Known about the structure:
heterodimer; A: 209 residues; alpha+beta; Methane Monooxygenase Hydroxylase, Chain G, domain 1; Alpha-Beta Plaits; 2 domains; four-stranded antiparallel beta sheet; 12% strand; B: 200 residues; 8 helices; globular
Amino acid sequence: MMGLFKRRSKKLEYEPMGVKEGLTEMKDLSEQIIDLSYAAILFDSKDIGRQVGELEEELDRLLHIVRIGVLLAARTREEAEQLAGILQVANAAERIGNASEDLVEILDSDIEFRPFAPFFLKEAEEKIWALRVVSDSDLCRRNVGDLGIEAETGARIIAIRRGTKWIYEIEGDRLIKAGDVLIVRGVEDGLKELKAYARGEIGWGKYER
Amino acid sequence: MGEVREMSDPFEEIMDIFLEMKDTSELMVDLSYSALLYNSKEIAREVEHLGDEVSELSSRLQKIAIEEMSCGSSDATLMALHLCNYVNSIARAALSISEVVTREIEPHPILKESIREGDIGIFRREVDTGSVLDGVSLGAARLASETGMWVIAIRRGRRWIYGPERDQVIKGGDILFFRGPHDGAKKLKKMVRNRKRSAM
């Protein structure tokens, strides 16, 4: 069955451009937005909450692109059934975005949620910490990709606070600077390790002098 | 969890349930994407099973929030219900993804490709007997902190271990399903190999 699909697809170019890319981005965003919304609540930060809103809009936009691409692609009933699955997954990713946006709305409401905040910090398998980078840390002036922070410590940077600015796009070429506050998610062991690096208490393996 | 504990503070009890729900719902999201990637109905069914667990926890949380907290502070009750609602939505989204796998029709190949190309990947590797991971607990192997990889499931023969705990011992022959960054995956893939055997 799949063979037939593939042959047909070459001839008719049924594989819509942009659907795969759109889906990949939606999957990544859906995971990022879960972390960000949680960090927003944890740190009582409307700034992070706003970024959640922006990611949600981006998910909406991507969902629209995926929908159009999928609708243009269906030629047979069989194809339509498979393509419906794509729409379902894309919709689910967008629903994760909606849920995350709903979660951070608590920041703008009258509901007093702060007594809960300390409880967020405990027990969950993965935790979210805020770490300040000192000037003699090996992390300074190096980029996230070269350091391989996540592969070394298991801690993923969700956002960086630089002065009054927030940085949410943490790509491999993102430079870390002295004074940055890293919002990171990971297991406690890894977070402790990263904290020691950020404070300059230990040198980063491959840069050790 | 699940053991009976003396808890005087409904706050604390609610947060315990919430955190368990949150971990479970996020495991559901990971597993549902894995089910798609490997077109595995077994994993998809586990997502459904975890979905039932989340519903159960959710009812418990709501009950406590309404019965024990509402007389004290309506804000606390609202917040608890808000959190509960959030986790339920995430769980339902994961269920919806896994549904695509349990249908008769095979998922569209584009789904598999789009998951493979994400920043955070999902991978699967068999653990060689005699490798550094053979006989070591997940906690002791410190996989999450050493490689950034999170083991979401272990397949042992016909058995599955979903969302393994830190004290879960890895054995040769286990198939690990893990998620994380691509460079961390490379490290883990080395760890599952028995160097002596591959040198032969």
